[in-house]
Amino acid sequence: MNCICIRKAQHFLGAFALFGCSYGRLVTVARIVVELALQSLPWSVAAGDLALHRHDLTPSEVVDVVAELGRRTGIARARQLAPHLDARSESVAESLSRVHLAEAGIPSPEPQLWVGNDHRPIARIDFAWTKYRVAGECDGIGKYFDSAGGGPQAALRREKRRDGDLIDLGWTPVHWTYSEILNGAMARRVAHTLVRNGWDGRRT
């Protein structure tokens, strides 16, 4: 019987050590991530983005493993994994956001885009829809409770100041939380904002 062991090394998926065993043989990271994809595309993308960022995985390895699995249950889902992978993702929430936005038919954003004026960079946007000047910000709760950053009030002041800078540059900021990724509120809010800024609403 195959088994896959996932050991948490530091924090949730941010620094997972992935190990596998199959009849005493090592299971590759690609195989582990594809096995996850058979069950859940968003969560497999989160794991795959991390592995890609750490140079433990390549999209071609994912494609090869998927080809080996034949007609396994969930294989259609697993075939979608490689095109979704992006090493620029900086958190689980960002990876999940990207998949849920794509599944909602929303145009693909550019991740981690620096914007600014002629003098200096102002902010790095999590998800930038440059054509529509929409700046998507995936807000992890940690940023509001980081004692080194001054706590919730200081974080809110920084966020308000940053949003003001983005607005001055012609961008429309859109924020969402982890729970809003999963309950559909993120996709609805982003779609509404994009339409208001010129998107025709056609699914991509």
Major pleated sheet:
4 strands, mixed
CATH structural architecture of the largest domain: 3-Layer(aba) Sandwich
Q: What share of residues is helical?
A: 40-55%
In angstroms, what is the radius of gyration? 19 Å
**Count of DSSP H/I helices:** 9
Average residue pLDDT = 85
Terminal Cα separation, in Å? 41 Å
Biggest sheet: strand arrangement: 4-5-6-7
Broad CATH class of the largest domain: Alpha Beta
Order of SSEs, N→C? EEEHHHHHHEEEHEHH
Based on secondary structure, the structural category is: alpha+beta
Strand content: 15-25%
Number of strands: 7
Q: Looking at the chains present, what oligomeric state does this protein adopt?
A: single chain
CATH fold-level name of the largest domain: Endonuclease, Chain A
Low-confidence stretches: 1-24
Q: How many domains make up the coordinates?
A: 2
Tell me, briefly, the overall form: elongated
